[in-house]
């Protein structure tokens, strides 16, 4: 993966995270229900946060492995 493509993927991921962790979407999960004792809002915030971290790692790792192959 080229540096320009990597940069574009990371910016896209940033914008995705911005949308996922912003008020309109999170207000959908702001209910009184609990899953396994965890409020639904907290569960989704940490799920989205973990998803963003995993995708960031995957993008960076893919870039590093393509540099080693050349």
Automatic annotation (TrEMBL):
Keywords: Membrane, Transmembrane, Transmembrane helix
Transmembrane regions listed in the UniProt entry: 9-29, 41-60
Keyword Transmembrane: yes
The protein, known as: DUF3311 domain-containing protein
Source species: Cecembia lonarensis (strain CCUG 58316 / KCTC 22772 / LW9)
Lineage: Bacteria, Pseudomonadati, Bacteroidota, Cytophagia, Cytophagales
